[in-house]
Amino acid sequence: MRKVFDETRINRMVLQNRLVRSATWEGMCGEDGRPGLKLASCYGNLARGRAGLIITGYAYIRPDGKQLPGQMGIHTDSFAAETKALADAVHREGSKICMQLVHVGGQTTSRVIGRQPVAPSAAKAEQFPEIPAPLSLQEVAELVALFGQGAARAKEYGFDAVQLHASHGYLINQFLSPLTNRRNDNYGGDVESRSRFLMEVYRSVRSAVGKDFPVLVKLNGSDNLEGGLELEDALYVARLLDDEGVDAIEVSGGTSASGDRTPVRQGIDTREQEAYNLPLAYRIKNAVGCPVMVVGGLRSFELVEGIIRREEADYVAMARPFIREPVLARRWQEGDEARARCISCNGCFKPGLKEGGIYCVVDRIERESRGTSL
Ligand SMILES: Cc1cc2nc3c(=O)[nH]c(=O)nc-3n(C[C@H](O)[C@H](O)[C@H](O)COP(=O)(O)O)c2cc1C
Ligand code: SF4
Predict the structure, then answer these.
(1) What is the three-state SS of the chain?
(2) What is the domain partition of the chain in residue ranges?
(3) Which of 162, 180, 205 is nearest to 117 (CA)?
(4) Which ligand is nearest to the CA of 304?
(5) Is the predicted pLDDT of residue 333 greater than 60, yes or no?
(6) Residue ranges lining ligand 2, Cβ < 6 Å
(7) Cβ density class 286-306: b for 16+ within 10 Å, e for less
(8) CATH fold group of domain 3-341
(9) Beta 53-55 vs 19-21: how paired, if at all?
(10) Which of 160, 189, 239, 325 is 20–30 Å from 195 (CA)?
């Protein structure tokens, strides 16, 4: 029996298998963050393809927490009907959906958000042009409350879980990292103080959704950056979350400034290049009692099954393989265990920026050259 296809439970959420669609910005929402039919259809396809849990692209909890075009907003009650329709599209196909909540902090520009970006400190995020404004204590408290409100909306709209985006260099990660957090108050300094913002956000979310609703966290096991968050501190943070009752931790690594060790590495061609965050996830798994998900370069079924069988992680999350093949989980389950067809070229970002939504450009070229209709 293949363990990947075990039915499992995270808190009260029952999952049909251990394959997770990791959060993937789709670029399919309106400029005000309103989701629509295109995104509902994208999630419906993933659910039909039996992705066990679908984590949405990062949804901002306040308009200045936005980074990319077409990103979803969960900052207002006015998208209730359209956001409920996303959950319905997934439930109709028998799968589960989790809303990822984000504030991108200093990793955006005033051109996108119409004001100076905010961050823990006035430390420029590499690759972003502006020096952000440091958050006052009052603003920190407001953001903590807004994460809770975003989570409450997701629950009210029928989502099965929420995930806090605490990785990839965004606001929560900016607080965790000594590189971007130079504060001298209770939110900066040693790892306990740098974790305070995440823990306050976690408690705010937990009190908004109650103890029976799954709250997940995506955490960097390392920022893969000189002076950034490192594994020992990530282990401390993971233990804190576990002690507070987090329902699962998804382990990633890197930020957009991490050179060839970013979260979205290219050219995953060999088995050795796959599962590039597994050493971090495995260390975290051994430090906590909650389920752990590993993400980053998972492509081969045998490797995925082996990771679950050896209990190196409890779930395997993938992003790009599901862009190319929304049917991947069903294909594997039905016995075609060939490697995921994604070639990890990152060509899918561009149509998200320019054409109103991501898609696999390699797949499209291949279909066009075969003369097959889309
Ligand atoms: C187009 C695209 C959009 C992404 N958007 C998000 C996001 O919204 N939130 C997030 O946590 N990670 C995001 N990621 C990173 C993925 O969740 C994942 O961590 C990374 O792609 C590595 O997994 P993979 O090798 O299976 O693609 C995105 C990746 C891609 C390719
Ligand atoms: S464009 Fe297609 S093949 Fe390239 S990374 Fe994206 S999904 Fe994979």
Answers:
(1) CCHHHCCEEECCEEECCCEEECCCCCCCCCCCCCCCHHHHHHHHHHHHCCCCEEECCCEECCHHHCCCCCCCECCCHHHHHHHHHHHHHHHHCCCEEEEEEECCCCCCCHHHHCCCCEECCCCCCCCCCCCCEECCHHHHHHHHHHHHHHHHHHHHCCCCEEEEEECCCCHHHHHHCCCCCCCCCCCCCCHHHHCHHHHHHHHHHHHHHCCCCCEEEEEECCCCCCCCCCHHHHHHHHHHHHHHCCCEEEEECCCCCCHHHCCCCCCCCCHHHCCCCHHHHHHHHCCCCCCEEEECCCCCHHHHHHHHHCCCCCEEEECHHHHHCCCHHHHHHCCCCCCCCCCCCCCCHHHHHHCCCCCCHHHHHHHHHHCCCC
(2) 3-341
(3) 180
(4) 1
(5) yes
(6) 320, 323-324, 342-348, 360-363
(7) eebebbbbbbbbbbbbebbbe
(8) TIM Barrel (3.20.20)
(9) parallel
(10) 160
Q: How confident is the model over 86-98, as pLDDT tens digits?
A: 999 999 999 999 9
* Best residue for ligand 2 mutational test, from 273, 342, 355, 366 (most atoms within 8 Å of Cβ): 342
Helix axes 231-244, 196-209, angle to 10 degrees: 30
Angle at 254 between CA 298 and CA 351, to 5 degrees: 70
CA atoms within 13 A on the CB side of 189: 7
Residue nearest to atom 14 of ligand 1 (CA): 24
* pLDDT at 234 (0 to 100): 98
Question: Torsion over CA of 233, 238, 242 and 246, rounded to 10 degrees?
Answer: 140
Among 176, 168, 67, CA closest to 121: 176
Residue 368 vs residues 45, 342, 365: alpha-carbon distances, Å: 21, 17, 5
Dihedral sign of CA atoms 263, 269, 273, 277 in order: positive
Compute the distance between CA of residue 146 and CA of residue 62 in angstroms, rounded to an integer: 7
Residue 58's nearest CA partner among 149, 170, 146, 161 is 170
pLDDT tens for 136-166 read: 999 999 999 999 999 999 999 999 999 999 9
Burial class (CB in 10 A: 0-12, 13-18, 19+), 362: middle
CA 16 to ligand 2 centroid distance, Å: 26
